[in-house]
Design goal:
The complex is a heterodimer of chains A (216) and B (165). Chain A has 216 residues and is an all-alpha fold. Chain A has eleven helices and no strands. In chain A, 69% of the residues lie in helices and 0% in strands. The radius of gyration of chain A is 19 Å and the shape is globular. With 165 residues, chain B is mostly helical. Among the domains of chain B are: 9-57, no CATH class; 107-165, no CATH class. Chain B has ten helices and no strands. Chain B starts with 8 loop residues before the first helix and ends with a helix. The model of chain B has no long low-confidence stretch (mean pLDDT 84). The chains are: A mainly alpha (216), B mainly alpha (165).
Amino acid sequence: MASTTKPVENLEESGFLHDPEVQLMLRAKQGDDEAFTKLVATYQDRLTTIFFHMRQNQEAAEDLVQDVFLRIYRARHGYEPTARFSTWLFRIANNLAINSRRNKSRRKEVPIPAGESTAMTGLPVAGQNLADKSGLQPTRQLDKRELQLVVQKAIEQLSDQQRLSVLLHKFEGMSYAEIAETMELSVPAIKSLLSRARDSLRTALEPYMQLGKEKR
Amino acid sequence: MEKTVRLNADQREDLVAYLDGELPDEQVKQIDHVVANSAVARHEMEALARTWELLDVLPPSKASDDFLTKTMANLKVLETPFRLTDQWWFVPVRRVFAIAGWITALFLCGWLGFQITRHWIADPHAILLNDLPVIENLDHLQEVRELEFLNELKRANLFDDAQEK
């Protein structure tokens, strides 16, 4: 959660002080709003990408990103650099995603009608209809949009934890250890999680691999 | 290793970690050996690598243009201290309280006036009522010539009886 982690006994020895984003956060802690603005600007798109692929909804993704920053801002006075800033930030994002998923399943969200989905998912309605109608037969030529849709569907089929670990690894380039720290799991658990995720992706995407190769 | 034997779960996990460069050197050698000697492992590794590359088609999402401005504005609101006078309901509630205050003050003034009138301005009838036993017995009292005799009557509670009657 946004509440800060264990206090660091010796900040100089924490090793994270060299992280420029930790420096910005420490400035924000002292009341420097400009530093905080820089952090928001640096991470807004990166977080939106992760949340968008988690929720398949641009608006919901932006709301969650804003929530992450609100939590960090509220917790800034008690901030202690016990990890890289990005690890701390994505840990908060992970907790928020879990909570929002929990709330969502309690509320039973009403699905958005197909005609309104373009702005939300970022994918063309025509492409979605086409995919539904054709079942996206691998033998047919796929354009890039359709390929995106296929990959997105494959990502959607993963469990929340698998999906997040894949996204952090793919888009954030995090190591297993960093993902483990972010998701508060062990490194072997992440190794197993990613292995199963990639196995599922392989099963879902293997028929399109050759086509994907041609398109990219 | 036999060329067509499928990989077990541990080997598959190691294969993914191998592709991600997350395997310790010792295990890297083992996987190198497995891949070199198993067509299945090689196929598996290629498929995993290519599906992973396929994720590159996913477009990075972008926050809306006014996201930064909106977020910072919301943070500012969060920081603004709560002031009673800024609340929308403050003015009507204050008006209601003012009217109620005036009504209470008026009522108190009326009640106070009544009490003052009652206690401080003498009632002419009260004097008459107070002297009523004397007035009623005036004829008898006029016949009394000595004070000592009246005191005797008083000591005998004769006036009290008369008052009670």
